[in-house]
Amino acid sequence: MNLSLSRTQLGSLFAIGAAFLFSSKAIFIKQAYALSPLVDATLLMALRMACALPFFLLICWFNREKSKGLQAKDWGLLMVAGLMGYYFASWLDFLGLMYISASLERIILFLYPTLTVLASCVLYRQKLSVKSMLAIVLSYGGTVLVMLQEQQHAPVQEHFWLGASLVFASAIAFAAYLLLTPPLIQKFGSWNFTGLALTTACLGTLVQFFWVTPHPLLLVQQLPVGVLWYGLALGFFITVVPTVLLMQSIARLGAAQSAMIASVGPILTILLAVAFLNEHLNFWQWIGCLLNIVGIMMITLSKKKLAN
């Protein structure tokens, strides 16, 4: 009996593994926030990136030959992309999770493919197809349905809308990053680009932490050990490992197919939030989540057809 996996099967397993680990991010963040009042978004981001930085530096080192001969403009765009996609977008996401549930955070963040489509229409004057318009209506309608249901039970209304706005801003920042990346990946190579972009984001995060925190090292020493473990987990298991798995999946399946498999992300986050955070979605929220996922899958499928 042949137990070896085909290229497609292996790529699918990598994509599922990446989706599961990325979906766990909000769970780890919410649990870290609950451990100590000293923990905020800037601190937790710094712990995460400090743990991830050595691994991305290694990726840069092993791919250093591909960086030769590139222009200063290319390096500048790469730095902007890295800071936009993995520093600014992540920091906004971490901030938003201080005010809203992990389930809602994932659903709002999952809107980023629609934002790239809308941005492409504006930048390249492309017309939206009827199918794309329907997909956008479904995804945003479902998201609003989930938001309104959660908003009714929010203890502080201002905090709820602040959190939702921060996560939506994170989705916008990540969509901008995705628009910048295709030409950069062609010039730097996928592995080299990933290592350099994430190294830039790690350094930007650490600079921010040391800049805004009066006594950063003393603060870290005062943290419960559990927070440090969560920072390590966020850095290695929720950043480095899924990034590598996703790259391996894309190499075997292509970006569109990997993105389709990643569409299980919101469901995984919701199930994990129910299991570990005692979050619960009512009937209308499940309907909203389903509408969101169907809309995003329609957008992703239309992108795949255009690519072909």
UniProtKB/TrEMBL annotation:
Domain of life, per lineage: Bacteria
Instruction: Give the main localization category.
Output: membrane
Coiled-coil regions listed in the entry: none
Q: In this protein, which residues make up the domain named EamA? A: 10-147, 162-300
Provide this UniProt record's keywords sorted from A to Z: Cell membrane, Membrane, Transmembrane, Transmembrane helix
Hydrolase: is it a keyword of this entry?
Answer: no
The record's GO CC annotations read:
plasma membrane
Q: Where in the cell is it found?
A: Cell membrane
**What membrane topology does the annotation report for this chain?**
Multi-pass membrane protein
User: Membrane spanning segments where?
Assistant: 42-63, 75-101, 107-125, 132-148, 160-180, 192-212, 227-247, 259-277, 283-301
Question: Is the keyword Transcription assigned to this protein?
Answer: no
| Pfam family, any one | EamA
Alphabetized PANTHER family for the sequence: EAMA DOMAIN-CONTAINING PROTEIN, OS03G0707200 PROTEIN-RELATED
Its recorded name reads EamA domain-containing protein
Identify the species of origin.
Acinetobacter tandoii DSM 14970 = CIP 107469
